[in-house]
Amino acid sequence: LCLDLADWDATEAAVGAAGPFELLVNNAAVAVLQPFLEVTRAALERSLDVNLRAVLHVSQIVARQMIAQGVPGAIVNVSSQASQRALRDHAVYCSTKSALDMLSKVMAMELGPHKIRVNTVNPTVVMTDMGRINWSDPQKSAAMINRIPLGKFAEVDDVVNSILFLLSDKSAMTTGSSLMVDGGFLVS
């Protein structure tokens, strides 16, 4: 499906018709970086629409289908280390990712009786194509890498493998948790 997740009605129609589901990964996100005193209404609204509202809405649609089918399920929301640590020029991004972490905990509590587990993965910078463009300059990346005990950014497989674990039966007793995929950034 290709759609604008900020469009509530289009999302409802498309995702509602796509099931049945047993697993869901919410990975859509935007990062509009602005200093706190310069945050615009448009940046805030777009970030809230994609980083929080879309996750809530898609998860509602999918969880309702899981409950109606009577099957257990798992939802993994892709958050960020930025939900736990303030970063300059990331006021909106950090806030929406913190809100996503708490939304995931509430979802875990309310969906648990229906045998639906909900967790987050919270990666550091991930070396996607965009990550390589933004973080390949050693002068820019040095300050961040120096705070990561493992001394490197995450690769896509690091995040994917963590998601696969949380979706699998190998994590059958894990719900409401945030799995940090940050090379130790948050402990430094």
UniProtKB/TrEMBL annotation:
Family designation: Belongs to the short-chain dehydrogenases/reductases (SDR) family.
Protein name per Swiss-Prot or TrEMBL: DER reductase
InterPro entries assigned: L-xylulose/Carbonyl_redctase (IPR051737), NAD(P)-bd_dom_sf (IPR036291), Sc_DH/Rdtase_CS (IPR020904), SDR_fam (IPR002347)
GO function terms (MF aspect): carbonyl reductase (NADPH) activity; L-xylulose reductase (NADPH) activity
Any one of the GO BP annotations: glucose metabolic process
Xref: Pfam families: adh_short_C2 (PF13561)
Keyword tags: NADP, Oxidoreductase
Protein source organism: Spizaetus tyrannus (black hawk-eagle)
Gene: Der
The keyword Oxidoreductase is annotated on this UniProt entry: yes
Keyword Lipoprotein: no
Record's subunit section: Homotetramer.
